[in-house]
Write a structure and sequence with these properties.
The chain is mainly beta. The chain is built from three helices and 62 strands.
Amino acid sequence: MPSRTHRAVRRRRSRYLVALAAAVITLLGGYAVTTTTAASAAPTLLSQGRPATASSTENAGTPASAAVDGNTGTRWSSTASDPQWLQVDLGATASVSQVVLNWEAAYARAFQVQVSTDATNWTSVYSTTTGTGGTQTLDVTGTGRYVRVYGTARGTGYGYSLWEFQVYGTIGGTAGCGSGNAAQGRPATASSVQDAGFPASAAVDGNTGTRWSSAASDPQWLQVDLGSAQQICQVVLTWEAAYARAFQVQVSTDAANWTSVYSTTTGTGGTQTLDVSGTGRYVRVYGTARGTGYGYSLWEFAVRTGGGGPTTTPTATPTTTPTGTPPPGGGDLGPNVKVFDPSMSSASIQSQLDAIFNQQERSQFGTARYQLLFKPGTYNNIHAQIGFYTSISGLGLSPDNVTINGDVTVDAGWFNGNATQNFWRSAENLSINPSAGFTRWAVSQAAPFRRMHIRGNLNLAPASYGWASGGYISDSKVDGQVQSYSQQQWISRDSQYGSWDGSVWNMVFSGVAGAPPQHFPNPSHTVLNTSPVTREKPFLYVDSGGAYRVFVPALRTNSSGATWTGGSTAGTSIPLSQFYVAKPGDSVATINNALAQGLHLLFTPGIYHVNQTINVTRANTVVLGLGYATLIPDNGVIPMTVADVDGVKLAGLLFDAGPVNSPLLLRVGPDGSAGTSHAANPTSIQDVFFRIGGGGVGKATTSVVVNSSNTIIDHIWAWRGDHDTGVGWDVNTADTGLIVNGNNVTAYGLFVEHYQKYQLIWNGQGGRTIFFQNEMPYDPPNQAAWMNGSTNGYAAYKVANSVTSHEAWGVGSYCYFNVNPSVNATRAFEVPDTSGVRFHGLLAVSLGGNGTITHVINNTGGPAQGTATIPAYVNNYP
């Protein structure tokens, strides 16, 4: 941070005294700001002494609260990265008229001032890319309970630092709220009705014995046309027993673009009197989560107006996510989703498959993304070779609904028979009658094989029997034998095999019928009869009417075998109309708007540049990517965060770090969430991958942080790139792949490689890992550059000293210090010595003698060394 001299200079700067008056209403779907008649009360300093929070602090001596304490000798300062923010809770909705920023020497060159009613959805009321520091007095117009300054580019090499952050305005948006009901007798419409006896008009007829009720699904809405634009100051909702647990009250000038003036996720039903501030001709209640198993039902929907009368059409446009109407759900899946039908000729299908493979076979760091979808039926003489960033899937509810008589193949001819770089491709929800009696799936990391039925054998090695470094199978059935051959490691989960043949270093089976018996090492088979807690990945399918839907399989405990054998369909089906179907080029503002309004999210194949955080805030939201949809953060933003809520499902995404360092790429649950249990309905992370460097410079301090308890991590690859462009010890910098802070988190198939400090840090209690594969960083230039205090290097897997319960099965770490083979790691696994922390089936390997690992776990096992590449094993610890 700036020197003591700089700080003294800032303390001597003159301060401005501020007194202003204004009131503001955000309008037009959050896409505009309307200036209204000034409130009669004088504006006051609203922020002083109010609760303040920040994205980070430099240290304990510079907390967020120091910027709102009225003391110009204390300050908030952030860590030295972008973006960062400081926000204050005013305690109630206010009309904000002025913001004063008293910067220390470490100022913001580019920043926004934003307002929000819920601290989740933000509207910008001021934006600049040419900030000058000093004391900035900004006249603004906006309405919100929360106000923040959001910095995206620092003016110095330090963090952001504010002596004082002052917000002026008046509490409450309007004066003189009337007592009449402006909605009574006006035209009303609704998203649906239960039947003809419960029309929308019944909620605005003034009769508390009649009511509107909707269909029993989410979301639903009821709106009323007031006839002209009016200032809305209060809404009264008289609920029948079927109430809304989560809903918004919204206003609009055109019934197309909506602005939220009230939002809750903890609705109580009964009669709710809501003081609001907004302007519009149309008012609606928009429900996103029901409080009962029925629809939504209102006896009366009353709207009160006043506080200055109608206003003019808004013109100013905010630059961040508004809270307005959701973009329409459903829609086409874009040009890179190829859909095949049994009525098509085999030649036509084969021609398209070959063209895509020829493009993608060697395109390891290319930008094209493809999803191949086969509608239910039988396809003859089809030979699908699967290249980079290509996913092939059936569109049946069961894999047996789509039969391919032919092959779905991954081999390694492009890389001289070596499959160790066959990344980023997948197969799902198909049955295959292989033409040669076996299907070849010679892959390495980030290449899942899910929900597949192989009516023959499955070969996991390339045709040349060169090395492969995969991989992952779940929810699948192989009638014949799975032949691992030259595969170095593999995890199979909740599947059924005729038999298994092969073992190199680390083969793990969890809930697999037909798995080999437990034996470790040589053959190195780690076997769990059941999987503790699972939920299979959501998938796209078509129903009997030809409509697209997403099926979300049900949660299982102590599970084994595939979910779909025997005709089981336990789970939930969601129509595509309830998804926002995103396409490359869509703004994050639009995506966040859709999520906030209750839509799920489907990313079609492509590259998505993310200039602000995608916020997943609603319980049970499904976020599903097709064809390795890739999110790239711009200017160091965090590309996605998930609230600490029940049952979010993240699946099928690739996070690719940008050239400006992001503090992290995915956060599940805010910091401090570990105390809340989600055991009955956990969040799941499935086939979600992270890349830092390779194909260009990328930087991210941490790839993924899991704060929410009970989260299921089901197959990730977090990879700091080791080849192609944009790689180097000081180029693609990244500390840690995965940090788990939540309690009772269960992980299957963790692949975490090449990070510069600990690869994985586990701080939560009750964690379980079933399969871990790691390579330490290849490129420490010397031992001095890779020291953890006085310890040589960093362990791959670190369990915090405070943890008293943790268990792991089938875990391996390898070193390949090819830049300087004299580099040493003291240990591969570092854990507290306590009876509640147990590891089973451990190994450490030096690849070709490039470096050494002294011990496998703590001071036990090892060393791993020598050109023979023979692992050092530990059966159990302690």
